[in-house]
Amino acid sequence: MKIKKILVTQPKPESEKSPYFDLAKNNNLQIDFRPFIQVENVGASEFRRQKISILDHSAIIFTSRTAIDHFFRLAKEMRITIPETMKYFCISEAAAFYLQKYIVYRKRKIFYANGTFDDLITIARKYIAEKFLLPLSDIHKQAIPDKLTKENFSFTKAIIYKTVSSDLSNLQHDDYDVIVFFTPSDIASLKQNFPDFTQGERLIASFGATTAKAVSEAGLRLDIQAPAPKAPSMTMALEQFIKKHNKK
Description:
It is a single chain. This protein is α/β, with parallel strands linked by helices. It folds into two domains: 5-36 and 166-245, Rossmann fold; 40-163, 3-Layer(aba) Sandwich (Rossmann fold), CATH 3.40.50.10090. It has helices at 19-26, 44-48, 65-77, 93-98, 117-124, 143-150, 184-193, 209-217, 234-245; strands at 5-8, 30-33, 37-41, 59-62, 87-90, 109-112, 131-137, 154-165, 178-181, 203-207, 224-226. It has a six-stranded mixed β-sheet with strand order 3-8-7-4-5-6, sandwiched between helices. Helix 3 links the parallel strand 4 and strand 5 (87-90). Helix 7 runs parallel beside helix 8. The longest helix is centred in the N-terminal third of the chain and has 13 residues, at 65-77. It is elongated, with a radius of gyration of 20 Å.
């Protein structure tokens, strides 16, 4: 069976320069995109039940652009004006620049890491006297707050949005030769939407160790895994596998 159709469990890339489009063109593939999870708001009343005062904090740690969007949405809903003295610590330069959507960038104290949380901790350690707010989804990597605790940061974990399974009732998953997963929540959504799902000859690809573990725990066979030494991205892992597989 040659690989002809791939389902990626993420939104369709907005940029025409996405490597997925090159992958499809170079290997004569059909690649479809369908998010298996979606984000829901945590409203002001629900947030208040966490008994967290945003203005009691002097610094905010952002691990994603989604967290940035929901933090400022929530602040607006609660009619909270974030002071100019607030410090922002972002997981990446891209996330830091994204703050311009909500604040006057040049007037704020903004710090960013190289994309890893360990690097962000190294930067924030110079400001350990600050009281940090850590906005997260209800489903998040526990390693993030654990590392802050280990490093003796004063911080508050705030759940500001929720990750829930998408409605996939109209998805014909049997049409695809490969399904690509990126988070354990994607696997949970698959099982929730299709409790009788059987893999058969269908190939499964996953990104990251925690997703790979979720595939195994769901009783599924993992065929393609990224990142790998020779394939740091999912598109590279797919291309390498497909070229070998389709030659058979």
